[in-house]
Amino acid sequence: MSRYICCKLLKKNKFVSRQAQKKKSFKQHPERNPQFENITKIKATYLAQNQPVISMDTKKKEMIGNFYRAGKLYTRETIEVLDHDFASYGEGKIVPHGLYDVGLNKGHVEHRNEPRYH
To answer: Is residue 24 part of a domain?
Structure first.
């Protein structure tokens, strides 16, 4: 069957090309609120005793190298990148993360390179 015929049949039967949309959410766990209430109570106890309360957050690992990145930037020349994002062609991975001291109201954002394995 030709590509043209396939496209006509799909269109005739109301099939269209679509991109998945992130709209469904997970159901709330019944213990979720008590967990956060407990964390808040423990945090208040530690802060009252001048003990440190540290919050840490990490982001998605990113490969380092000449790979495609979504987005645009102003440039005078074409930006050419590899046509496939194979980790073996990269220079490692980076793990962005941040630390926040609740009591001191100070934070620090850092990134760590993961070694490249062959």
So the answer is: no
Coil, helix or strand at residue 114: strand
Find how far residue 50's CA is from the centre of its chain: 34
Residue 104 lies inside a defined structural domain of this protein: yes
Decide: helix, strand or coil at residue 57: strand
Residue 8: which H helix or E strand, with range? helix 3-12
Burial of 56 (0-12, 13-18, 19+ CB in 10 A): exposed
Question: Which of the 8 DSSP states describes residue 15?
Answer: -
pTM of the model as a whole: 0.48
Indicate the SS3 state at residue 118: coil
Query: Each residue of 59-96: pLDDT tens digit?
Result: 888 888 898 888 877 788 888 999 888 888 888 888 88
Domain of 73 in residue numbering reads as 52-118
